[in-house]
Amino acid sequence: MNYTAEDEKLIESDWGELLESCKKICKKPEDWTLIKRAFFLAKEAHQGVRRRSGEPYLLHPIAVARIVVDEIGLGVKSVVAALLHDVVEDTDYTVEDIEHIFGHKIATMVDGLTKMSGVFNADTSLQAEYFRKVLLTLSDDVRVILIKIADRLHNMRTLGSMPQNKQIKITSETIYLFAPLAYRLGLYAIKTELEDLCMKYRFPKEYEEITRQINETSAAREEYIRRFCAPIADALDRNGFKYEISGRVKSVYSIWTKMMRKQIPFSEIYDLFAIRIVFQPLEFPSEKTQCWQIYSSITDIYTPKPDRLRDWISIPKANGYEALHSTVMGPDGIWVEVQIRTQRMEEIAERGFAAHWKYKHATISHDEDEFDKWLKKIRAALDSPTENAVDFLDNFKLSLYTSEVAVFTPKGEARRLPCGATALDFAYDVHTKIGNTAIGAKINHKIQPLTTQLNTGDQVEIITSDSSKPKAEWLEFVLTSKAKQAIKSYLKREQEHNIQRGMKLLDEKLAELNLTPNGRVIRKLISAYDCSTKEELYTKIGAGIVTLDNLEKVVKSNAKSKLLKFWTLFIKDNDEETDDDADLQDTKEESAQPPAETPTFVIADCCKPIPGDSVVGFKDPITHQIIVHKASCDELNRLASQHGECIMKEEIQWSQCKKLSPLSTIEILGIDRMGLLLDLANVVTNDFSINMREVNIQSHDGIFEGTMSLYVRDAESLNALVERLRRIKGMETVKRVIN
Description:
- By secondary structure, the protein is an alpha+beta fold.
- It is globular and about 80 Å long.
- The longest helix has 32 residues, at 481-512.
- It is built from 29 helices and 20 strands.
C-alpha cells in the first residue's frame, strides 16, 4: 500500500527540514549523496507502513536523524545510520545489503541499532538481552548509543498513541536506563526531557498541575530574576566580560521528585530556578581563573553559602561537565544558585559527548580524561561474563550514578566513586585482589570498617589479609558494578558446591517432616525466603544465608497469609462502563467461592501501597501472583524495564474497603508547647474518626519529633489528615513514612 498525497506532503516537509539541518555537517558533495541515498532506501523499505498513531512510518527515522544532528551534534554517518536504523529490523533488507551500499562502518552502526531477535534462555528477560546487545556497541562506537537515545527520545515524544501497559514498560525503561545513560553521556537537555515525558505519561495530573503552577508564578519569578541579575551584569560589564546571563526554571520532573522526597507542596519549593552565566573567555588568563574572577564579583554583591560551592572546573564530572556552581543569598532572603561556565563548557553541558569529543581532539593534549576512564570501565564490564542479562543490566545501571565523590589513594591519586560508595567499593576500584582480601580500611589515617561510606576528600588505605575472602553479605553494602561483579564471580565459583549442599540439606529437613520437595513446596519456599529461583534458594541454604529452623512453620503456613486481608483489588475490564464498577466490586466481595481464574494479589513490600494509591500490577513469572506496586515505585521501574511483558495490560483498581483499615505511619516534627498532644488526638480521633495504634513523641529543647501509627481507610483519608495536621500551631513537618 502506497502513501497518500497528504502523506507524501508530510514526508517532503520533514525531509526538507532535515536537509536544512544537514547544511552544517555536509562539507562535500559525497556527504549529500550518502544522506539522500539513505533517505530514498528508507522510503522504499518503509513504503506504506504506518506507526500506531497513523502517520507514515518514515517520519520516525527522519525525526531521529534530525535529533542526531540538531540536538546531539553528530555527523553524516550518524545521520545515515539514523535514517536506516529500522530498515534491517522491519524489512527484507539485511546488514550485508547495507554494507554493500553504504560501507562497513555504517553497516556496523545499523547492526548495533537493530534489536536482538531469536530465542533466549527462558530465565532471561528479552529486554535485558536487547539492552545488553545495544550497550555492547560501546566497545565499538559510542555513536550507536547516542542514536539509540535519539530513537528513544522521539518514541517518548510520540508515546500518547500507545496503550497503557506499553506506556508503563517504555517509561520504566526510559527512567531506569535511558535517562541516566543520557546524563552520563553529557546529554543533559535530552535527559531532562526524557524525565519530563516519563512523568507526563505516568502521572499526567501531577504533571499538568505543576506546569500550571510554574506558569502562574512566572511573572513574579521573572521580575525577581531581573532584580537579582542587574547588579551582577553591572559588575561583569565593568570588568569587560562578554557574557549572557539568564534564569532557568527547574524541570517539572525534578520539582515533582523533590516534592515526593520531602513530601512538601509546590509552594514550599523555593529553589525553582537557577541563574546561568555563560561567557566568552579571553585568551589570558586561563578559563578557570576567569570563572573564579566572576565568582568573586558575584560574592562581592551577594553572600555565598560556603557548603554549597561546587567546583567542577578543577575536577570535571565523569561525563565531561565543567562549571562553577555557587549558592548565594539574594534579595528578600532567598537562596539562589548561580552557575558559571564558558561557551565551550556550555556546549559540552548541552550537547554532551559529541561536543566533548570535538573539543578534546581540537586540543594538543590527548591525555585520558574522566569520560575516557568511565568508558574504559564500561567496556571492561561488557567484556566480563555475567550470570545472565538481568544481572548485567543491573550492574550497568550502577555505573550511571549521577552523584559522585572524589577520594584519594595513600599516594594522592584521585579516584571517582558513586555517592554512597563504601571503603570496600574503593578496594575493588583499586584492584580485584585487594577487594577480595580486604578486612578493613584506614580513612584519613583512622581505622574504619569496610562498610564505612566515603566522602569527597577522604584519603583511603585498604588493610588486607590473605585469609580473608568475599562474603555474600558484602553485596549488601557495595554500590559499584566492579565490586558487585567481582564478589559475584568469587561466589559463583562456590555456587555449584552450595547448590548441592543446599539440595541435600533441604531434602533431609523435608524428609524429617514427611514431605516431598515437589513444585508446590519449592514455590512456597522461594517466596518465603525471598528468592527468585530454586537455584538461588538452594545456594542460600548451602551457603548458610538461609537457615531452615522455621521450615515446618513456613511449609505448613496458610498460603494466603501474605495476601490482602483488609481490602480487595480487582482488574478493571476496559470494555465495561465506569458505572458498572460498583457491581463488579460487590460481586467479587460477596462471592464465597471465587472462580479458579480469580487473580491472586500480593502487596509489594518495597512500597506498601494503600487503598487510593495509584497502583500497577506485575505478574510474577515464577509464582504467577500479581504483585501490586505503587505507580511511582522505583522497584516497579526496575522490574518493568527488564520484564515489561509481565506488566498487567488490564488496569488494577482498589475496591471498597469493608472491614479493617491498613496501618500507616506518619512522621511529625515541630515546636513543642502545652496541649500539643491533645490537639493531635482531637484531629485524629474527633475530626477524622481514625484509630491510633501507637504514638511515639519525644521533646527536647523545645522541639518535638515522633511518629504516629494509624489505621486509615485509604490514601485520600491519609492525605487529608496530613494536610489538617500541618495546620496545627507549631507543626513544622508532617509526612507519610514510605518503607
